[in-house]
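Bench notes, afternoon.
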Amino acid sequence: MKNYSDQAKGEGERFADVPVDTFRSHIRFIEKHHLWDEVRGALGEAGVDTVAMDIRPVRVISELVAAKGSALPEEADHGGAVVTPECGCDSISGRPPVTATGGGDAGAGDAGARPE
């Protein structure tokens, strides 16, 4: 049985232009009906583990989420929001990313720089 990713490769299709309202309605439907696990499973079965997107909507959405997320109260449900860097730095703030071996300034807060 051929899955969509096989068809797309076979037909030379790589990207689809999806109207924002269509994208929104699909995401809202998935969220409203708690279908994220099922969507992940279906994508995984099709061999899809990433969603390719033009950097322009990624940047706009990332900046909006970062701005709105920081303005929401701590108890607001935005814990799953992720900033998507386009390079080796945090594309929103320009700071270096925080790594397991150090770097970045996460956790420094008003306490000043971390000891070396």
